[in-house]
Design a protein that fits this description.
heterotrimer; A mainly alpha (91); B mainly alpha (608); C mainly alpha (44); A: 91 residues; mainly alpha; 2 domains; 2 helices; 60% helix; 2% strand; C: 44 residues; 5% strand; elongated; transmembrane helix (chain A); membrane (chain A); transmembrane (chain A)
Chain lengths: 91, 608, 44
């Protein structure tokens, strides 16, 4: 039986999705620049609690670095420390 | 005349039932219904409960006089009402979700559990609170045992032990508190004296504080499919309610909450069982609430309560989608799943809504509540002497990015996309889809129109989540978290999903207990045998001495006598050895024994 | 149900797609340096 082709069975669609996503990411950084520019010239009100929020792309880079560190620490520090065989508790 | 009737009707409405009893008693009657009537009846319980709830006026009701005590069974204010609403809503949704399971144990336990949670949040004093707190444990452990697998039974037993201990700590705290203050009022506490500390920790166990948390990640993934949805809603949120009522503004809670928000996300990244991933992210979300309560300002407590409200919905939704996957495929490990968007598209959609909500995407419910806590922390950190809160804010931001990473992406990606595990199953049953649909709708509705949620929060709300800056920065944070996931996955660095046990604090009582037993056995058993040896050798030595000494005395006396009688040489030796043997074996001729004894007495007499 | 349905993987590896690792390394390095720069230049 020939199975129905699904959305992501076609690698082209995956590539398209990735391309859209990367475009969004870059777009957000551009938007952030525009936003800070407008805020600097008092076109829109910008309220920041902390100094670093006034830097371009603070949240973007923080999110990225945070997640990479999260994964690297989980993989290289936590997993070697805590991983045991599946039947560890059954022995 | 008419006004009298109206007044009578008012009093009739005012004599409200306890919300807890509607669920508990109503639930016990479920097994007596059959077929369609059963479904209708079960759906009616939360509906009737809700209609009852919205007619209860604020204040104390149902006093129970018990000796010197005036117990208040029902106390309604804005805080308890908020939790009352959401508990009714999630009970209704979950009941729809479990209609297909035909498992009376699960039904009765579920209603009992929900009733206990309602009883605890509407309790007017600490004693009633404690009674329902214990009932909460009973109901929840039944939901775990209802799975009927050996693993579930063992996990349920551990769960029961931890909560029985937690209940005792709470009870001890209440007793201390009462003996100190003479009051059982559920009012603001300060951490001073053993009573308030013990209560604080008793609540903390149910709140899954770090190190006290493993009962949650151990037991929830072993519960029944519907049971996990129930469990995700009530126990921790009741504890959050209790903290918000008794300990708002306690600085220690800020740091506890930060720990809760931060550490589980690391475990969530390497965990394979997707319901366990959700259990870890549950702790992470409760962490945000605990921080909010620790800050204690109106904005912060509002944020904590709003987040509890939203978390019950989106975490329930996520547990429901994973339950549906489990129901259809029989699998829950990331290693066994993938590609399910093809066969379960609606479940997939609802899962994405839940994921977007927990990750706090704009227009989804997490966005309008998590940010309240973040803003409250930021506000507070500018107060003099509160500079350390900057660090708290950074960690919370880290956790906010991390939660998207593990709950927002990992759950939908490994279940519905990613590597196709080849499951070709049917879409989830209609009742499950309806339940997930309602929860998903509410997540989007609250996220889009937060004013309705804000209007029922404990304090007046002066907060606007949808500022350009907030929407933009939050979207940036989330998209770049997604970018990190994407690049890590594509470059092959993302950790492989592995079937394994990840040790957590429950090691301390699952293995540590056994190890301790072995260590103690290793020290105490040799000590025991050593002592026995010493005692035995002392006893036998003294027995020997007591036999040997008279023989020697007899020998000494006799030899002198024999020497006097001129017995010498071999003959003397022979006599000596015969006498010694006779004395040691007790076979001495009576005359000789008597003579020795007499001689002995004479000797003593002379020496005296 | 064929027996293959019950075959459970012990490990699900994520195979790298060629070309992404350098991209990741570059982006991560830049992001780290920039974060360090921001945090150093903002008084608490």
């Amino acid at each position: 039986m020939e199975e129905k082709k699904h959305l992501f069975d076609d690698p082209k669609n995956v590539k398209r999705l990735l391309a859209v996503f990367f475009a969004c990411v870059v777009g957000l950084l551009v938007l952030n620049g525009v936003y800070l520019y407008l805020a600097k010239h008092h076109v829109i009100h910008h309220h920041a609690y902390y100094e670093w929020e006034n830097f371009w792309g603070f949240y973007s880079f923080y999110g990225f670095v945070a997640c990479v560190i999260l994964v690297l620490v989980s993989k290289y520090v936590l997993r070697p420390l805590v991983k045991r065989r599946e039947d560890y508790y059954d022995q | 005349m008419t006004s009298e009737i109206v007044m009578a009707a008012d009093t009739a409405l005012a004599t409200d039932l306890m919300p807890a009893l509607i669920f508990m008693v109503g639930g016990l009657l479920v097994p007596f219904f059959k077929g369609r009537a059963k479904s209708v009846y079960m759906l009616l319980i939360p509906v009737v409960g809700f209609l009852n709830l919205i007619h209860i006026p604020l204040g104390d009701h149902h006093h129970l006089f018990f000796g010197d005590f005036n117990l208040v069974l029902l106390h309604v204010d804005r805080l308890s009402l908020l939790f009352g609403y959401i508990f009714h809503i999630i009970a209704f949704i979950t009941v729809i979700y479990i209609l297909g399971f035909k498992n009376d144990v699960e039904y009765v336990a579920g209603f009992f559990y929900a009733g206990a949670a309602l009883g605890a949040i509407f309790a007017g004093d600490l004693f009633i609170f404690f009674v329902f707190w214990e009932a909460l444990t009973l109901g929840s452990v039944m939901l775990i045992w209802a799975r009927k697998t050996p693993k579930a039974q063992a996990a349920g037993f551990r769960y029961l032990l931890v909560h029985a201990f937690g209940g005792l700590v709470l009870l001890a705290g209440i007793v201390f508190h009462y003996s100190h203050t003479g009051s059982l009022e559920m009012s603001l506490m300060t951490l001073s004296g053993p009573g308030s500390w013990l209560m604080f920790f008793g609540i903390g166990i149910n709140c899954a504080w770090p190190i006290l948390h493993p009962w949650l990640t151990d037991a929830y993934p072993e519960a029944t499919i519907g049971g996990a949805v129930f469990l995700s809603a009530f126990t921790t949120k009741t504890a959050v309610y209790a903290l918000a009522r008794l300990y708002p503004g306690t600085d220690l809670l800020i740091w506890i909450g930060v720990g809760m928000a931060a550490f589980p996300i690391f475990y969530a990244v390497i965990e394979n069982d997707l319901r366990r991933v959700l259990a870890y992210s549950l702790i992470n979300q409760v962490g945000f609430m605990v921080v909010g309560i620790g800050i204690g300002t109106e904005l912060a407590v509002n944020g904590a309560c709003a987040h509890a409200f939203n978390d019950i919905l989106f975490k329930g939704l996520l547990f429901m989608t994973m339950g549906a996957v489990m129901h259809r495929t029989g699998k829950i490990n990331a290693t066994d799943l993938g590609g399910l968007y093809k066969s379960m598209p609606w479940t997939c959609l609802f899962c994405i809504v839940g994921a977007a909500s927990i990750s706090a995407f704009p227009l989804f419910s997490g966005f309008v509540s998590k940010s309240m806590v973040m803003s409250a922390v930021a506000h507070m950190s500018h107060n003099p002497g509160q500079g350390a809160l900057v660090f708290v804010w950074l960690v919370l931001l880290f956790a906010a990015a991390g939660v998207f990473h593990h709950a927002g992406i990992k759950i939908p990606f490994f279940a519905f996309f990613g590597h196709d595990a080849g499951h070709r199953v049917k879409e989830a049953p209609l009742n499950m889809l309806i339940a997930m649909g309602i929860a998903a709708f509410l997540c989007v509705f609250i996220g889009t129109f937060p004013q309705y949620l804000y209007s029922v929060l404990p304090f007046p709300v002066d907060y606007e989540p949808y500022s350009i800056s907030h929407v933009l920065t939050q979207t940036e944070l989330l998209f770049f978290s997604a970018l990190a996931f994407c690049l890590l996955l594509l470059s092959g660095i993302y950790p492989a999903e592995q079937r394994a046990v990840n040790l957590d604090a429950d090691w301390s009582y699952r293995i540590g207990g056994k190890k301790l037993y072995h260590i103690l056995a290793g020290i105490l058993n040799p000590l025991n045998t050593g002592c026995e040896k010493v005692v035995r050798s002392v006893a036998s030595a003294s027995a020997f001495i007591f036999k040997d000494a008279p023989a020697r005395i007899a020998l000494f006396v006799s030899v002198n006598i024999w020497l006097v009688f001129g017995i010498r040489g071999r003959y003397l030796e022979l006599r000596k050895s015969r006498l010694y043997n006779d004395a040691m074996e007790g076979t001495m001729p009576i005359g000789l024994g008597a003579a020795t004894a007499v001689g002995f007495f004479i000797l003593i007499y002379i020496l005296n | 149900m064929n027996p293959q349905d019950d075959k459970e993987l012990m490990e699900l590896k994520h195979d790298p797609v060629p070309g992404y690792k350098p991209v990741f390394v570059v982006v991560f390095t830049i992001a780290c340096l920039y974060m360090a720069f921001i945090l150093c230049h903002s008084p608490l």
